[in-house]
From TrEMBL:
Gene3D superfamilies: Leucine-rich Repeat Variant. It comes from Hydrogenobacter thermophilus (strain DSM 6534 / IAM 12695 / TK-6). SUPFAM superfamilies: ARM repeat. Pfam families: HEAT_2 (PF13646). This is Zinc ribbon domain-containing protein. It comes from the Bacteria. InterPro entries: ARM-like, ARM-type_fold.
Length: 262
C-alpha cells in the first residue's frame, strides 16, 4: 500500500474510485483463484453454476469487466447470493473461487504513511477538461507553458512535429486510457513506424485491456509485421488475449468469413 501511495506522487495517472460492498471486498481479499475468462456472459454463467454445484464448499465470483467499470455477481451452490453493478454486456468476464472468507482487519491508507510524509498531488485547471502533459518527461504542464517547468523541453517543438511522430510519442503516455486511444489511432492510420513500440508492449505489458487494444490495432494494419505480432499474441499467457488474437487472425486470413466446422 505504501509503495502504491508513493507511486501516485511520482507518476501521472487517472484515478477511478470505486466503493465496494463489504462482502465483495472480503471475497477479493481472500486470495481468490482465477479459473477462467469468457467473452460471452451465458457461457461464463453456465460454467460457473456447474462449478458451484459440483463444489458446494466453494464460493464463486463472476466479474464483468468493462473499460471503466467492474461488476460483481457472487454464487453459492449454483445460486446468486449477491450482485453489485454487474453488466451482462461487458467486454469479458472473469471467474474466481475461494474456499472460505478470511477474517480481515481493514486499515486506512493513512496507516501506511509515515508521520510528516506527504503525497504530491497535481491538479489540472478546474475550468478545463483537458490535462496537458510534457511529451518528454510526461509531467503535467499548463496550456500556456512554452517550456516544460520540470525538464525544460521546448513545447513549441512538439507542436511543430508531424502528426505521425506525435502519435509515436503518445504510445509512451503514462495514462493508460490515453495510450489506448493512441494505439487505436495507430491501427486506423496503419502506422508501420509504430511496430517496434507495439512489439515492446506485447513483450512487457501486463494490462489485459491495453493488450486487447494492441490486438485490435494490429488487426486493422496491413503490414506483414502486424500479422507476425498477431501470431505472437495468439500464444500469449493470458487466455483472453490468445482468444482475441486468434479471432483476429482467423478473420484476417479468411477475409472475414468463418472457417467451416470440422
Amino acid at each position: 500500500m505504501k509503495r502504491i501511495l508513493r507511486s501516485l506522487s511520482e507518476n501521472a495517472c487517472l484515478l477511478n474510485i470505486y466503493e465496494l460492498n463489504h462482502i465483495t471486498l472480503e471475497f477479493l481479499l481472500s486470495k481468490p483463484k482465477l479459473l477462467s475468462y469468457f467473452w460471452d456472459f451465458e457461457e461464463a454463467e453456465r460454467f460457473l453454476k456447474e462449478i458451484s454445484k459440483r463444489h458446494a464448499s466453494l464460493t464463486a465470483l463472476l466479474v464483468s469487466v468493462s473499460l471503466y467499470e467492474y461488476g460483481y455477481r457472487m454464487y453459492m451452490d449454483g445460486e446468486v447470493i449477491y450482485e453489485e453493478g454487474f453488466d451482462t454486456e461487458a467486454l469479458f468476464f472473469e471467474i474466481y473461487v475461494i474456499k472460505s472468507f478470511m477474517e480481515l482487519n481493514f486499515l486506512k491508507p493513512e496507516d501506511y504513511i509515515s508521520e510528516h510524509e506527504k503525497i504530491k498531488v497535481l491538479k489540472s485547471d478546474e475550468k478545463s477538461t483537458i490535462i496537458y502533459f510534457c511529451p518528454a518527461c510526461w509531467s503535467i504542464v499548463s496550456q500556456k507553458d512554452i517550456t516544460c517547468p520540470n525538464c525544460g523541453y521546448d513545447l513549441t517543438e512538439f507542436h511543430n512535429m508531424p502528426y505521425e511522430y506525435k502519435l509515436l510519442m503518445g504510445l509512451e503516455h503514462p495514462v493508460v486510457e490515453m495510450r489506448m486511444n493512441v494505439i487505436h489511432t495507430v491501427g486506423v492510420k496503419d502506422l508501420k513506424e509504430a511496430m517496434p513500440q507495439l512489439e515492446y508492449m506485447i513483450n512487457r505489458e501486463s494490462n489485459p485491456m491495453l493488450l486487447m487494444a494492441v490486438v485490435d490495432a494490429l488487426a486493422k494494419m496491413s503490414h506483414p509485421e502486424a500479422l507476425e505480432l498477431l501470431r505472437k499474441l495468439a500464444h500469449h499467457t493470458y487466455p483472453i488475449i490468445r482468444s482475441r488474437a486468434k479471432y483476429a487472425l482467423e478473420k484476417r486470413l479468411t477475409g472475414g468469413r468463418r472457417s467451416p466446422a470440422v
